Automatic annotation (TrEMBL), chains A, B:
Entries under SUPFAM superfamilies matching the protein: Six-hairpin glycosidases
Keyword Isomerase (UniProt): yes
Name of protein: Cellobiose 2-epimerase
Keywords assigned: Isomerase
GO BP term, pick one: carbohydrate metabolic process
Gene name per UniProt: bfce
Enzyme class: isomerase
GO MF entries: cellobiose epimerase activity
Family of the protein in this entry: Belongs to the N-acylglucosamine 2-epimerase family.
One Pfam family linked to the record: GlcNAc_2-epim
InterPro entries: 6-hairpin_glycosidase_sf (IPR008928), 6hp_glycosidase-like_sf (IPR012341), AGE/CE (IPR010819)
Organism of origin: Stieleria marina
Domain of life: Bacteria
Amino acid sequence: MTNRSDIASPTGRSDLLQIYRDGLLGDTLPFWVKHSVDRECGGFMTAMDQDGAIVDTDKGVWQQTRFTWLLGELYNRVAQRSEWLDLAIHGIQFIEQHCFDPTDGRMWFQVTRQGQPIRKRRYSFSESFAAIAYGELALATDNAQYKQLAKELFQNFIDQNNRPTFPAKFTDTRQTRAIGFPMIGIATAQQLRDTIDLDAADDLIDGFIQTIRDYHFKPELRCVMETVGLHGEVIDHFDGRTLNPGHAIEGAWFIMKEGKRRADASLIKLGCQMLDWMWQRGWDEQHGGILYFVDLHGGPVQEYWHDMKFWWPQNETIIATLMAYQLTGDEKYARWHQQIHDWAYSHFPDQDNGEWFGYLHRDGSRSSTLKGNLWKGPFHLPRMQLECWQSLQESDLTTVSRDS
Amino acid sequence: MTNRSDIASPTGRSDLLQIYRDGLLGDTLPFWVKHSVDRECGGFMTAMDQDGAIVDTDKGVWQQTRFTWLLGELYNRVAQRSEWLDLAIHGIQFIEQHCFDPTDGRMWFQVTRQGQPIRKRRYSFSESFAAIAYGELALATDNAQYKQLAKELFQNFIDQNNRPTFPAKFTDTRQTRAIGFPMIGIATAQQLRDTIDLDAADDLIDGFIQTIRDYHFKPELRCVMETVGLHGEVIDHFDGRTLNPGHAIEGAWFIMKEGKRRADASLIKLGCQMLDWMWQRGWDEQHGGILYFVDLHGGPVQEYWHDMKFWWPQNETIIATLMAYQLTGDEKYARWHQQIHDWAYSHFPDQDNGEWFGYLHRDGSRSSTLKGNLWKGPFHLPRMQLECWQSLQESDLTTVSRDS
């Protein structure tokens, strides 16, 4: 077995399934369990160098909630291992005790090792990630309070986006809408439908997808816009022209996944169309990999790190290409999956210490030895490994039952 | 004449003087005058591609004030060309009409082409740059109102730093002080001493230098810290360990310049010591050039673009090494000047369109074709060319008078 991807053959699929499953259970998860669990102060420390040495004891709230979610998801979806549940409870306890601001009920973005607040942000992504973490714990422990909290946090995320209570960074001169809100809305509702049977999930998902279709999905430009005007108008300034292909591709697989569940061909088509456009825009023909930002018209981008290769856009593209191939059988997606899988697996894994590096230059050379920080933690890589493993397993079962 | 720097020989110095003077008057200044002056709506547009094509019509307030300062400085220091004065007045008119928030008197950070506000920032650097622009205009036109505004804006910059009125980005859990405030304080007071005879300038400068000495200058670490705790303590987290060598080196020449003016050997020594430490930390032994951020202990840095080569740290280091050589005669500084000058001039200038590119990868390859944006405009490069030209000219005159 090599790390090369060949999804079109049964052997290739079997190899890939092993790569994803064993990578998750034998590498990624043990790496974080070994290095990030703070037995002394609770929660997780994710700011670490390549060998797992903690380089900053501060705790990112995104990572507290995401690792807790991952552990709960593994417990509920893969195997009821008590170690995973215990660690998820270890995470949720730190979240409960230290990640909420009692003055307004909102969540912090960054706290100290002991849980003192450092920073809150305007956006409420902490709340959305906490919602799915509480959802997993509600399912795993049948705890009604967790279930209620999961619902409330999701509602807070929605309310805070619609009626921000935090001072705005920009004036009202040029109001915008960002794709992050409806995207994360879809993923959160999907999760809470699975874990706490969220009643409104289908309707909410319909609404979020409609928002993307109405405002961000641009057939005339063959593009999914990251940021648009309030009515979906293209804003011809740096911020409006800046595309985030890996992000749009993440949104694409959320929608494909919904199409698969509902057997809704129009949703699958929408997701594949989003992937098609953004692969064309994001894949780096010169060096390989998905670029971080590109300009709508191919011009210069203002963000300094625009052409770097971050780990997570590759993770999201690996999921999306695999899903698109499984849903459509289109050989193009098998080729793309092979391209992105092979490029990512030949550049990101840390051969010495396990897990992946996070930040490469455009040419694939390493920019940083960091294994984690406020933004990189046990989320995109293990979620990719889990999603791909599970969907390959399902398709194998389908193939087996079809053959038998 | 080549673009290679050899400051230790008379011919080398003469060549260098020409490079800086002709670069300023024959390349940098004409580039911005040709491409950035907005004859229709006033002010300057600096977001442009390599050929000067405007890629974003929004106007950065830093660039309005800095270009206005440069034009006034050239008028007052180099030659009383009416074109320069007219353009400086063109700039100040846009600033007066569109760059202040009438509700609180603070300045915006970014406005539209027509001058509608887009964004205000917590920090008041817009005010400090506006102060020196008004100072130049006050001197050039003998306008008492400009003089008064220059004083008030500098005071606003100081007050806003000491008692912020804008919501904080961080909680009070870990209060910090950044070197940017005392550094820009020194440079602003130096400018206003020259243009409006600011009474308090010497005392203010003494205070700002003392702040740097007391809190940021660390002999035991051989380092100038960018960010420290309120009492100068080293903060052992990403933000506290992150060093900005080009920034500290900019501060170093502000202090050397003060030492030169006052013939104060202790200030010259302080500036040279800051340069020595931060050259050692910032010079990239592998690829050349000054790195953007480095970690205090050589560990990983959290900012994604940490190892890129931006134009301005090179500009500031070219000034500082030249000044240190002229003030001390130490051959080490001549060597460093040659290293940084030669590396910068072989990587940054745009051979086709003039001026410099702004953003290179660590290895010196180009990351962006941008010639300007909200942060890059007619400031660091032309200021370097002006400072180095003028100081080489002064030293030539000194040499001539000594020889005669």
